[in-house]
Amino acid sequence: MRQKLRVAAYAVCVRDDHLLLARWIDGSGEPEWTLPGGGMEHGEDPYDTVLREVTEETGYTVEITGLLGVNSIRRTQRRSWGRSIAHQGLRLVYEGRVTGGELRPEIGGSTDLAAWHPLTEVPALNRVGLVDVGLALWRERPVTGRVAAAKGD
Length: 153
Hints:
This protein is α+β, with helices and mostly antiparallel strands. It contains 2 helices and 8 strands; from the N terminus they run E-E-E-E-E-H-E-E-E-H.
């Protein structure tokens, strides 16, 4: 079975009890809300990745105020011709503070909308497990930089 590792960086941005999220489109179902962020390009530092990705997906520039933790997921992905890929995602989760820019959707990317959501309403959103992981890291700030994985993640 082929193995694939994807390293990505995401930001938890909370302002006035609202969480900044981007709506992710994967083409196989209903869009889901996720933390702004995404995959590292070859040779790119994860810190630069999160700054770039937040701007691409939301229109905002951010200041990183801390590394909240690291989350690792593993799953088997089925591909054409009966092939499978053992996928591992290594996700660095930062805390960010918006310092400039204007909220706008990403054009031609993996997300189609960015919005602020009241923290109290996040549990009712159709969201990826990373949102729960990011919020747990933000709230708990564990010394290990690790929390239990969310359902479906």
